[in-house]
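Notebook p. 47: complex prediction with guanosine-5'-diphosphate.
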Amino acid sequence: MGFFDLFKKKKEEKPITPSTEGEVVESAPVTENGEPTIEEERQELEAGLEKTKEGFFGKLKRAIAGRTTVDADVLDDLEEVLITSDVGVDTTVKIIERIEARVARDKYLNTEELHAILREEIADLMEESHRSTKDFGIEVKEGMPYVLMVVGVNGAGKTTTIGKLAAQLTKAGRKVYIGAADTFRAAAIDQLAVWAERAGATMVRQDMGSDPASVAYDTLRSAVANGADVVLIDTAGRLHNKVGLMKELTKIRNVMSKVIPDAPHEVMLVLDGSTGQNAFEQAKQFTEATQVTSLTITKLDGTAKGGVVIGISDKFNIPVRYIGIGEGIDQLKMFDRKEFVRALFGEAK
Ligand SMILES: Nc1nc2c(ncn2[C@@H]2O[C@H](COP(=O)(O)OP(=O)(O)O)[C@@H](O)[C@H]2O)c(=O)[nH]1
Ligand SMILES: [Mg+2]
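Predicted complex, structure tokens below:
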């Protein structure tokens, strides 16, 4: 699809509340048909995960230097490598146990084979999160907007992720509505407005300090009235106390289901991957406060803590839908566990 086809699905729209629209201003390196090639996508992913890869393999290499077979010492060291790579204790124990079982079976497993087994086991721990690449992995339902509510602490990357996601969806020809339900700070609403404009999406807003549930309600009403395909709801991630958070998120959900009975179709928790263990703690808090159905892990560029993707996905049993590997509009990637493992380990031998 060419760059100028991006907005072909746009129709006349009459938002209930003031809105902004605009154009996507940046794009990825492109081929003649306007899309990055698989090879370019892989290179970008590898570049984004470079620090994690270096950290993990650097440690792994040192741990197994001079050893030929996988013995108890190697496993001890591997355990330490995984834990210090932010995979988390529970998932590390799981991986080590699986490798121990393999070692018990094939007595003389060499350290070369260890790589192959590690990549298999790690890919196995994560869930497949997309049925297809159509509509950037969102299962758009014809005739009723698909509602995705985005939660997470302040600074995790919610607004940025919504902007990037909206851009991909409008590029795929979808009509996108964004609800500015983070009404806590005026700057947050303005920041979202800028993203909505860049993405060519319609934003529904109210004044700062207004009720987030009311904004969400207006957004859904407006989206339905105008035949939108996807609704993205931004929220404030105030974690001052769990009961407060729970109440606020529950209220937003209830109000939305009055407009579209099965909304929200997805509740996506956005976590800042560079915070490592802290991201685990946030996942715990949010999954206790509301039903989280998908994850996005941001800021994997520039951090060696990318192992959190493996551990969080495994521990909470929630699929990772997207990963953020930069601030640019096209630096949100659909998470593909095989591509992720390939970026970390290289091509399978
Ligand atoms: N490097 C990098 N920065 C990101 C990424 N995602 C978000 N950010 C930055 O993180 C900061 C906080 O993001 P924001 O979307 O405002 O977070 P929110 O408070 O959860 O809405 C901003 O400066 C973003 O540019 C990413 O994938 N990589
Ligand atoms: Mg925000």
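Notes: The chain has twelve helices and eight strands. The radius of gyration is 21 Å.
Next step: compare against the earlier run before touching the bench.
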